[in-house]
Amino acid sequence: xxxxxxxxxxxxxxxxxxxxxxxxxxxxxxxxxxxxxxxxxxxxxxxxxxxxxxxxxxxxxxxxxxxxxxxxxxxxxxxxxxxxxxxxxxxxxxxxxxxxxxxxxxxxxxxxxxxxxxxxxxxxxxxxxxxxxxxxxxxxxxxxxxxxxxxxxxxxxxxxxxxxxxxxxxxxxxxxxxxxxxxxxxxxxxxxxxxxxxxxxxxxxxxxxxxxxxxxxxxxxxxxxxxxxxxxxxxxxxxxxxxxxxxxxxxxxxxxxxxxxxxxxxxxxxxxxxxxxxxxxxxxxxxxxxxxxxxxxxxxxxxxxxxxxxxxxxxxxxxxxxxxxxxxxxxxxxxxxxxxxxxxxxxxxxxxxxxxxxxxxxxxxxxxxxxxxxxxxxxxxxxxxxxxxxxxxxxxxxxxxxxxxxxxxxxxxxxxxxxxxxxxxxxxxxxxxxxxxxxxxxxxxxxxxxxxxxxxxxxxxxxxxxxxxxxxxxxxxxxxxxxxxxxxxxxxxxxxxxxxxxxxxxxxxxxxxxxxxxxxxxxxxxxxxxxxxxxxxxxxxxxxxxxxxxxxxxxxxxxxxxxxxxxxxxxxxxxxxxxxxxxxxxxxxxxxxxxxxxxxxxxxxxxxxxxxxxxxxxxxxxxxxxxxxxxxxxxxxxxxxxxxxxxxxxxxxxxxxxxxxxxxxxxxxxxxxxxxxxxxxxxxxxxxxxxxxxxxxxxxxxxxxxxxxxxxxxxxxxxxxxxxxxxxxxxxxxxxxxxxxxxxxxxxxxxxxxxxxxxxxxxxxxxxxxxxxxxxxxxxxxxxxxxxxxxxxxxxxxxxxxxxxxxxxxxxxxxxxxxxxxxxxxxxxxxxxxxxxxxxxxxxxxxxxxxxxxxxxxxxxxxxxxxxxxxxxxxxxxxxxxxxxxxxxxxxxxxxxxxxxxxxxxxxxxxxxxxxxxxxxxxxxxxxxxxxxxxxxxxxxxxxxxxxxxxxxxxxxxxxxxxxxxxxxxxxxxxxxxxxxxxxxxxxxxxxxxxxxxxxxxxxxxxxxxxxxxxxxxxxxxxxxxxxxxxxxxxxxxxxxxxxxxxxxxxxxxxxxxxxxxxxxxxxxxxxxxxxxxxxxxxxxxxxxxxxxxxxxxxxxxxxxxxxxxxxxxxxxxxxxxxxxxxxxxxxxxxxxxxxxxxxxxxxxxxxxxxxxxxxxxxxxxxxxxxxxxxxxxxxxxxxxxxxxxxxxxxxxxxxxxxxxxxxxxxxxxxxxxxxxxxxxxxxxxxxxxxxxxxxxxxxxxxxxxxxxxxxx
Length: 1257
Hints:
Layout (H helix, E strand, L loop, with lengths): L1 H7 L3 H10 L8 H7 L15 E5 L30 H9 L3 H15 L6 H34 L2 E6 L2 E6 L8 E5 L7 E7 L6 E5 H4 L1 E7 L3 H4 L4 H5 L3 E6 L10 E7 L2 E7 L4 E2 L4 E3 L3 E8 L5 H4 L10 H31 L3 H4 L8 H5 L2 H15 L8 H12 L1 H5 L13 E2 L11 E6 L12 E6 L2 E6 L2 E4 L17 H11 L4 E3 L12 H5 L8 E3 L3 H13 L1 E7 L2 E6 L2 E11 L7 E7 L5 E7 L1 H4 L8 H11 L34 E5 L19 E10 L1 H15 L5 H15 L13 E7 L18 H10 L3 E5 L4 H10 L8 E5 L5 H17 L5 E6 H10 L1 H9 L3 E5 L3 H12 L6 E6 L5 H6 L2 E5 L6 H4 L3 E3 L4 H38 L13 H11 L2 H9 L5 H6 L15 H27 L13 H23 L5 H23 L13 H6 L2 H28 L3 H29 L9 H12 L10 H4 L4 H4 L1
Helix pairs in contact: 4-6, 5-6, 5-14, 6-33, 11-14, 11-32, 15-32, 17-19, 22-23, 24-32, 26-27, 26-28, 27-28, 32-34, 32-36, 32-37, 34-38, 36-37, 36-40, 37-38, 37-40, 41-42
Enzyme class: translocase
GO molecular function: ATP binding; ATP hydrolysis activity; ATPase-coupled intramembrane lipid transporter activity; magnesium ion binding
Keywords: ATP-binding, Magnesium, Membrane, Metal-binding, Nucleotide-binding, Signal, Translocase, Transmembrane, Transmembrane helix
C-alpha cells in the first residue's frame, strides 16, 4: 500500500495539467478546487461518491495512461422485482415477514416436530394456499413487468460510433454516447441536447408520459454545438459535460459543458432547458442529436419509480391490535388447558388408566419438556382462532373495490374526458374517516383561467375596451382602425408583459420530409396564418394575449432573439439572461438588450416578492389601487334589488425606505359573460395580484451583473442561490435612466389575476369551479373541517373563502397577520384565544399568513393549535409548499391523531399531498405532478363530496364488518374445540375432522363475506349525499372501536357456547337416536356442531346484509349448499388416497336422523333470535341517524311495493291476451324494487304489514 501511494503521488500534477489543457476540472468539491486553482482528480471518483459526474462526449477519454473511467449504470430499465433464480426465496421471505403468515409457519413446524392432535395438513394446506395465491399474483405481475422491460430495452436506436451512425438496442447505450432521435420517437436516455435540424438548435418535446403536460416545450442547445448537425461534424466535436449526480426531480438539472474549439475552451451553463428526459417524445422536429448523461436506472424517469412512503390506514392498525388480543386469548387458552390437564392427572386413575399404561421412557421423561410439548400441542389445537385468510381477503376486497371509483359515472368529467383514478387501494376505507381537509385554492377551488381586463399604470387605472387601453372615467373608445396613443409608461408596461415570460409559439408548418402537415400540430389547431400561445401557467398566457390584443405582439423567439411587434413596428430584443420562476423565489427575471443597445431587466412575480423593493413614483395611488382591487366580491343576483357585498380589511403594506421601484397594477375579470355592475363600481374586484417590475442598467452595471451571473450559471453547487444574489443586489442598489432618459428611476407593474369559470351564471362570483360552495358546505355538515392553504395574498384569499362558503357572513373572522417577532405573535395568539373564549359567536374563522405561521410554529405550537381547533374554518395565505406540509403534519401529529386529507392540483401541492393520510390530486391545468404523487385523482373539487360521503362511507362499513366478522366466525369455530377438552380430560382430542379444519376459512365461509365487502350499502348513495351528517356516524373509527370489537367477540363466544352445549343437551344424553339403534360417536357430535356453526355464521352475515344482489344470494345459499354437498361426497365415498377415513358415512347418518334436523333448527334459531330482537329494539328505541335514513328509505320501498302488488293484482284479473307483462316479469320487477335493501327471510311481510324487513335488520 505504501509503495502504491508513492507511485501515485508524482502523477497528480500531470493529471492536473492534462485537465487544465482540456478546460475541465472535476473533483469531489468542484468549486473549491476551481477557485483555489488546485489540481484535479478526474476519473478516480467512484460513482456517487462525488457530487458531480464528468461525461466525455462520444467517449473521447484523455489520451494518457493514468485515466480510469468512471463507472456508470447501463441503459437497461429494470422495473421487475424478481428473477427466475431469486423468485422463490425472495417471495417467501417477503410473505413470511407478515406476522400472520409467520405465525402459521411456526405452527406448521411445531406440528411436524412433535405429536400434535391435528395433522400438519390442517395448518400447512391453508398456509400453502395463501402463500401460493399471493405468489402467483405477484409472479404474474412481475412477469408483465419483465415483458415491458424487454420491449423497452430491446427498442432499436441509432448511436454515433466510429464516425458513422450505428443501429443498436436501447440497453446498449452508454453514458457519453451521441444518440440520434427522430420525430415522434421517445428519448431512450436522459440526453443533453447537442443539435437539431433547426438552425437555432432548438427542438419541441412533450412530457405527457412523465408529468401529464400535453403542451409543447422548447429545449435548447448551446451555440457551440448547435452547428454540429451531421455525423461528421459530431465526430470532430471535442466537448465534456459536467453535471450533478442523478436525482429524481424532473425539473432540476445543473451542469456545464466545456467545448474546445481551435485550442480555446468555451464553458457554457446547462439547465433543465438543455436536458431531454427519457420517456419524453420529440415533436415538430425532424431529428436531434444528444449526448447521454443519465442512463438506465439512473435516468430521472427511473428514479421516479420509487414508491411513495407507505401509508397505513386506521383499519389496518386496528386489525393488528385485534390480532394481538386474539393471540393473547390463544395463549391463555393453551396455558389454561395445559394447567388443567396436569391438575386432572393428579389422580392416578386419570393419569395412567388401565387401558393406556405409560412406558418406562414416558415415566422418566422431563416434566418441563412434557409441559412445553403439551402447551405447544394445545397451541396447535386452538391456532385457528387467528384467521389466516383475513389478510388475503382484505387485500382482495381493497383491490377489487377500488374499481368502483373509476367506474362511477358521477365522478366522470365529460368536458375533459377524465374519470377518477386510484393510485393506491390501501386507503379506500380511510376515505370514510377524514376529519380535516386541506385544500389549495387556485386550480382546486377555482378554474385557473385568466383574461386581462383592467390595469393601473403609474397611479392611473386603465381598462381594456375592444382591444384598447382606456383610462378610467372615459367611456368612449378610440375610432376603429386608429392607433391608440401609447407612449412612455404605458408602452413600457406592455413591452414588459410581452417580453418577460416563458410562453411558446407554435405554427402549423408543413413537414419538409413528408407530404401533409404534422398531425400533432394539426390537433392543436395551428394554421399557417395563425399562431397559438402555449404556457405552463395560465396567467402568463393571459398577459401575452392581452398585450397582443392591445397592440404589442410577441411574434417569435429564435435562440436568444426575441421579436415583438409594437403597433405594427417590429422590434428585436436580445435575450441576455433568464432566471425562471420557482416556488421559493416566487418571481421570474429576464435581462434584455434593447434595439438601441441598452440593457433592461424585467421581473415578474408575487407582489410580496416585488413590493418590498418599491418606493418611487405614484406609490400612494398604487397602494390604494391594490387595496381596491383586493375588495371582496360576494354575490350578485340578476333579480336582486341590491347586492350583498363585503370588503376586506385593507392590508397595511409596510415598505422599507430607500427602495426605488414604481408600481403599476393590472387586473383580470371573468372570461365568459358580462359582469353585472354592482351598485358601487369600487366593489367588484377580489383579485389576486402579480407584480411586473423593470430596471435599466448602465453599461458598467450590466458588465458587473453579467460577470456574476455567468459565474453563477456555471456553478455546480448552489446554483439557484448564486443566481439570485446579483439580481437581488441590482434591485436594491442600481439606478439607471428612465425609458426616455429624463430621470433616474426604476419601474414596476403590479398585475392582478382572477381565476374564472367557463360556466355562465347569473352570479358574479363565477370564478369558482362548479358546486364548490355546496361541496364545502356538505363537508362541514359531515363534521369535516376545511382548511384552505394558498400562496395568494391575504385579501384575495379571504375573497375566495367568502365567495365559496368557506367563511360565512355570520362567522367571526380572526386574524394572525404580519407578525414581526415571537413575542408579538404569542401576544396576538393569546388575544385570539381570549376572544374565542369570551365571544359567544357560534363559529370562528382564522386567517394566517406564511410569515406569522412560521413564528407560531417555532415556539407557540400548542397555543396556535388551541386557537385553530376552536375555529370552524382556517385560511392560510402566502404559504410556501413546505409550509403547507408543515401545517398538515401539525394537525396529523396532534394528540387526537385525526385523519387528514390534502387536495391540490399543482407541483407546489405535492408536499402536503404526500404528508396527509390521504392525498387527492386534481387533474387541472398545472401539469400532473399532483396527480402522479396522489393516492386518488379526480377532475373537479365537487367530486370530493361523493368520494368521501358515499365511497368512503361504503368502503369503511364494508371492511369494518369484514374484519369483525372474521374474528367472530373464528371464535365460533375454535371455542367449541376448547370446551370439548373439558369432556375428554384435556387429551387434545380434536372435535372436528382435519378436512373441516382446513376448509372452514378457505371454502365454507369465505365467499359470502367477500361479496358482502364489495357490494354492501347501508343506505342509498343519494341519501348519503343529501344527508352529509350520516358521515358522522362512522367517524373516529366508530365501527372498529373497542366496544364494537368486544361485542363481536362476546357474541362469538356466546354462539360457540350455544353450538356446543345445545348439541350436547339435545343429542349428548340420548346416543341411540339412529333408526337402526346405532349409537352416535364423537365424530357425529363434532359434525353436528360444525354443521350448526356453518349455517349460523352464514345466516348471521345475511342478517347484517342490507343490500342484496344476485351475487349475495348465490354465495350465501350456495356456501351452505356446497357444505352439504361436499360433506355427502367426502363421507359417502371411500377415498383410496386417504390413510384413515373417520368421517365415512357419518354425515349421511347424521342427516338421516330427524332429531339432528330438529337440533340444527332449534340451535340456529336460538343463536339468531336474540340478534333480531336486539336490532329491532335499538332500531326503534335508540336509532342512529343512519338507521333513521334506512327507515325512511324502507317506508318508500314499502309504499312502492304495495303499489306494485295492487298493480299485480289488477294485471292478473285481465285476460292473458290483454296482458302486456307476464306474472314472472311483475314478480321480478317487484322483487327488484323491494328486496334490494331487505333481508330475504321476511320478504313476504310487505304484503301484510307496513313494517318492512329492513326496519328489522
